[in-house]
Design brief:
There is one protein chain. With 231 residues, the chain is of the alpha/beta class. The chain has a single domain, classed as P-loop containing nucleotide triphosphate hydrolases (Rossmann fold, 3-Layer(aba) Sandwich), CATH 3.40.50.300. The protein is 32% helix and 25% strand. The protein is built from nine helices and ten strands. It has a six-stranded mixed β-sheet with strand order 6-7-8-3-9-10, sandwiched between helices. The radius of gyration is 17 Å and the shape is globular. The mean pLDDT is 93. Bound molecules: adenosine-5'-triphosphate (ATP). The site of adenosine-5'-triphosphate has 10 residues, from helix 1. InterPro entries: AAA+_ATPase (IPR003593), ABC_transporter-like_ATP-bd (IPR003439), ABC_Transporter_VariousFunc (IPR051782), P-loop_NTPase (IPR027417).
Length: 231
């Protein structure tokens, strides 16, 4: 199968003598959900920052979307993707509804019916409250609901479960699992359950590079702890 998004030999650094990511290569297929796990400091956020054009200290042999060479900051590529970063709450001076309208205008899309998302995330009371006045979990929901309403071809989520209550977490898992209907979801998580319950493939970020968990027993029993014991 032809990879939709491929990154070949990406090296990223904060200080050039000590790269955080080293000649890392991975491919994301069209319509799949891919989870990325790794220890604290492994470089998950740095990788997502690179993919979103937020980190300048990197070089890559090749980055391709649909077979075409691209740069992370290419405007056409920017509007194919949307990302939710952990702890990042942009546009605090907008309400959720204002932010949603802004994003959809920017991406040149029509806002769909989002009642299922609003109910699923128990967000009914917060649609018209300033984002900066929301609790941590409700702030997170602003961007998650926007992401799942927008359905970009490439959706990046950094630690999506952080800050959510158990009900919203269950709903989030259902949305993540179903995302392959709309596009490709690539997310990082420390919550092993969130990866084993939703992902088609799991990538492990370790020592600056990525390897795939080839032992798929986690798919049958939903538990990747045993597989992780061998890597
Ligand atoms: N702004 C920065 N300046 C210098 N070093 C940084 C900076 N941000 C991250 N690092 C370093 O880069 C490495 C990777 O960090 P990163 O945040 O990408 O890891 P992570 O896998 O997302 O970690 P965690 O699971 O703790 O969120 C770490 O060694 C970290 O200390």
């Amino acid at each position: 199968m032809k990879a939709e998004f491929s990154v070949i030999n990406l090296t990223a650094w904060y200080t050039q003598k000590k790269p955080v990511l080293q000649e890392l290569t991975f491919h994301l297929q069209k319509h799949e959900v891919v989870g990325m796990i790794g220890l604290n400091g492994a470089g998950k956020t740095t990788l997502l920052n690179c993919l979103c054009g937020l980190h300048d200290g990197f070089q890559a042999e090749s980055v391709k979307w649909n077979g075409q060479e691209i740069r992370f900051r290419d405007p056409a590529f920017m509007f194919l993707r949307y990302a939710v970063f952990d702890g990042d709450s942009p546009f605090g001076y907008f309400t959720f509804r204002e932010y949603l309208a802004y994003v959809f205008r920017t991406y040149k899309k029509q806002i769909p019916d989002i009642e299922t998302l609003i109910r699923g995330f128990s967000f009914e009371q917060y649609e018209n409250v300033l984002i900066k006045e929301l609790s941590t979990g409700n702030k997170k929901k602003v961007y998650l609901i926007t992401a799942f309403a927008l359905h970009p071809d490439l959706l990046f989520l950094d630690e999506p479960v952080n800050g959510l209550d158990f009900q919203s977490t269950e709903f989030l898992y259902s949305q993540m699992k179903e995302y392959k209907q709309y596009g490709t979801l690539f997310f990082s998580s420390h919550v092993l359950e969130s990866v084993s319950l939703t992902a088609d493939r799991i990538l492990l970020l370790k020592n600056g590079s990525i390897e795939e968990l080839c032992d798929k027993t986690w798919k049958e029993n939903g538990d990747i702890r045993e597989v992780l014991g061998h890597v």
